[in-house]
Amino acid sequence: MVLHTMSQTVVLGVIGSDAHVVGITILEQAFSAAGFDVVNLGVQTSQEEFAEAAVEHDAEAVLVSSLYGHAEQDCQGFHEVLEEAGVDAVTYIGGNLAVGQDEFERTRRTFEELGFDRVFDSETEPDEAIASLREDIGETATESERATISS
Ligand code: B12
């Protein structure tokens, strides 16, 4: 017998003026297939739109994507906006987060300091993010998802 738990909602979108839509579409499909309720805000999403959607859908997680190299500017003050709106959710960011992105550890620190719980580079497989999220919200990852988590 399979036991179903109530599904968890994930809000995702591409922040700022960024128009790269492919990555977020793949993430939407992967999280849906993994059993999450996904609210995809699409491209060119403002900080406030993320916050409003997270409140409206009582989201467990807010996933931000950015490809075009302006993520740091776009995410300044983001966590303050979420906090003011009363959002209590895990926050991830991923994509091409810096121009060049040759030293990812520095990029990771920058975004952790901005308040993100996890930071992913553009090589990230959706399963890795899914397994991380299950871990962060206290759900059990499947074996194949678990195998993708890097330490
Ligand atoms: C296609 C493309 C475009 C298309 C976008 C079409 C569309 N509507 O989507 C067009 C031509 C419009 C475009 C425009 C631009 N682009 Co462009 N584009 C690309 C390209 C070739 C592929 C992007 C793509 O679709 N990848 C496929 C998907 C599946 O991968 P992905 O997006 O990386 O997403 C995966 C991961 O990153 C990760 N991920 C992404 N987000 C998140 C979030 C979370 C939470 C997690 C866990 C994971 C995750 O998971 C995804 C799925 O596996 C990349 C180069 C490249 N090879 O990546 C450049 C690239 C992203 N573009 C770039 C640039 C500079 C631009 C422009 C600024 C160019 C210009 N001067 O006009 C504009 C920006 C316009 C705008 N307002 O956004 C640069 C960014 C440079 C940087 N960050 O340092 C890149 C890297 C090219 C390069 N090497 O210079 N682009």
Characterize the structure shown.
This protein has helices at 22-33, 47-56, 71-75, 78-85, 104-113, 126-136, 143-146; strands at 9-14, 37-40, 61-66, 90-95, 118-120. It has 151 residues and is of the alpha/beta class. It has one domain: Rossmann fold (3-Layer(aba) Sandwich). Cobalamin is lined by residues 17-23, 26-27, 63, 65, 67-69, 92-96, 99-100, 120, 122, 124, 126, 129.
> Percentage of helical residues?
25-40%
pLDDT averaged over residues: 92
Largest sheet, order of strands side by side?
2-1-3-4-5
Q: Report the count of strand segments.
A: 5
The Cα radius of gyration reads 15 Å
List cofactors, ions and other ligands.
cobalamin
Query: Can you tell me the residue ranges where pLDDT is under 50 for at least 5 consecutive residues?
Result: none
Shape: globular
What CATH calls the topology is: Rossmann fold
Number of helical regions: 7
- Our measurement of the CA-to-CA distance between the termini, rounded to an integer number of angstroms, reads 33 Å
Biggest sheet: strands, sense, closure? 5 strands, parallel
**CATH homologous superfamily annotation:** Cobalamin-binding domain
SSE-based structural type: alpha/beta
CATH architecture: 3-Layer(aba) Sandwich
Determine the strand fraction and express it as a percent band.
15-25%
CATH class: Alpha Beta
List SSEs in N-to-C order: EHEHEHHEHEHH
